[in-house]
Design a protein that fits this description.
This protein is mainly β. The chain is built from six helices and 40 strands. Helix 2 (about 65-70) packs across helix 4 and helix 4 (about 545-560) runs parallel beside helix 5 (about 575-585).
Amino acid sequence: MKQEFKTHEFFYYTNSERGNGETDFMGGNTVLNNDERMSFLREYAHAASRWNGDPALATKVATMEDAAKAVKAFSDPEHQLRRRIPITELEAFSADKANEYEGLNLYAGAYVENDVVVLKDGVVSPVSCARYIFDEPKKAIKIAFDLYLSPDYEGLDKTPTSAGSAGRVIEVRIGTLDVVKLKVYFTGAVCIAKTDLWDGPHTQIGEIKFGEYNHFEIDIDQTATIIVNGEKTEDYDLRFSGEMDSIFFDGGLHPRGEWRIKNMTFDGEPFAFVKNDPTDETLSSLGIVNLPYVIGTHKNKDKRLYFKKTFSYQKDGRVAELEIDTLDPCGKVWLNGKLVLDTADVLKHVVPVTDALIDGENELCIMVEPRAPENYYYWHRHEDLYNGWFCGEVWLVTCPAVGLDKMVIRTLDASASVSAEAELTFNGKAEGQVKIAVAPWYPQKGEETVVATASVSGDKIIIPFKGDFTPWSPDTPVLYSVRAIYTDANGNEQDDLAEEYGFRTIAQEDGAFILNGKRVLMNGALIMQYLPPVEEIPCNHNCPTVEQIAWQLLMIRRMNGNTARLHMLGYGSNSRLIAKTADYLGVMLIWVTRMIDSLESMVFSTEWHEGD
């Protein structure tokens, strides 16, 4: 069906010749003063009220009530053979994380070894961080330390870095605000960065050597003098107010390459690694909650998040697993007091728990470590750096000893009739038959039809199938239930996996975006995820509710958009709820996920990390 859209453009003319070049509404490239900006906004508001027939500009494009109504239509396809039980109604607790050493916070696997702080190597976020807290706040301070960076962090790309490049960060702070910010790059360059939100120039002040210790000295007294390996900088005017309370070592986006800090001194006095007495954590109840559940913000800084649940289970000879969407940034899981998961990354985990389960009442405990107060980019930040830490969705799954492990569906052609394939993997050697059954799922549910059958002997099979399916597009957000059914060699149905799926093909040709064989204009908005109210931004930034996701995507749809660019820079989200919501509401995604470190990793190996 042909659609017509009306658009409006609003121009503001200035006599400045700079207005003919690249400009911003505000910031370093602006050509407008405050009065001109206010004039533009007033005139734009008047024009918008006329265009929309809304004199008071009081009509919302979409409301949270609209979002809640839309979410009611969402559901997961049903399994008929395997049991996939969502873990809901857990009691949540918070508890102050006791520091192992006085005046030292360690995050995401950082540890102390012979009075050396070690920030660990890795592949997937989170990165290790450490914060030294001064004995008392300081108006002036002299700091010295030796820093080691593994040769693994030295990049293949020697292109000069910019203020926006990721790197290891050393910050002397007042609370979460920088007084001095040094960045150590994969080229070896050490730069001092100005922390203006819109204009963050940085200046190289030295260079480190990989694979050996490098000596740093920072002298702050309204101005800053820095010495790197004996090379002294000029005095930098800081113009800060308040008293400094800590120095923070931030691992940046990518955990590649171990780094170490030793010989830390404050005003000539060495930092004393004094161990605290171990104490039992005092749990404070947060009430009964459902997952995902997040805490964060400065008021919860350095608090662990716990979840506890008691549930009944009867063993039936089947294999049991816990499917855990994420513990972000990292955490642990116990079942009946037995540690079944200790994860140092944010990825999804499927944990065998057959041996840990007992007949009768079982006790599940989940712990999420607090997030370090990282500040990746000066131009994307909230003053409260304690971005949320959370537990994603969790399921208890039971299946046969040899059953389906994973299903990946791919659309091969959707330009006319639809052809696709299902790639199935098993958790052992399967012998028997697999059927692929498809049913209409959204916007209307329908009867299931078997579209393909194949014999299997092994742990993997790819099954092609075709059907008279309606391709998914923003105009026709049609979804299907695709279910794989495994029958053993004796003809007994053993296991199934079901996924909701929209049949579509995506390509790029000659600069055009091609959906289902046809050129489509991607028209939409950028979502930075700074959701109101302002005091909840640190939590909503990387763990929004499904209603908040739907609310934003509904606004795009109602403004004739079909695309959302998700750019929660520095944290992002891998949540399936984002993809699910976009599929139901007919929105295409340009998605910066938690695997944004893939971009930085290219300077080390010139290859993407394919972690999503």
